[in-house]
Specification:
Elements lengths: L2 H5 L2 E4 L3 H10 L1 E6 L5 H11 L5 E9 L3 E4 L2 E4 L3 E8 L12
Antiparallel strand pairs: 1-2, 2-6, 3-6, 4-5
Amino acid sequence: MSQQSIMSVLLEPKVTEKSSMIGELNNQYVFKVSKNATKPEIKKAVELMFEGAEVESVQVANVKGKRKIFKRLPGQRANWKKAYVKLKPGFDIDFMGTG
């Protein structure tokens, strides 16, 4: 798999209260990933994007889009895929770029 296709696997980090709590307790980070991404691809992408991070495990969840009403018309948000990435002890990801 080419380096460019690996770089397109991770779409964005999901920074929420729940993901922050999981990160502090279990050294896990949550990412929004492409729908067709596999666990080995996600592991390679995290290790490539965040140099010096070694991945211990990856858990994946498919998130179903919510049904919403837009100007009196029913609609639905898009489905997406979420990955919980657990790092090996002693490794960390810094999203802010400080330190």
